[in-house]
Specification:
mainly alpha
Amino acid sequence: MQVTDIVSMVANVGFPVTLCFILIKYVLQNVDEKLSKMEDSLQNLAQEIQRLDESHTEIKSTNNGNQQQAK
């Protein structure tokens, strides 16, 4: 947004309304960035949980096999 755009908005709708538009734009940009980071984190967390679940299943099946051989 250029300075001329801001001056034009102030002249057309007034300073408080222009300030609200600028703040809304700023907030939406920041929220979008944070949501993108959170989405990446959630995807990484889901992958890690899947990996741990697979490891747990392998350990569990190995322990069950060892217990059956011991009997």
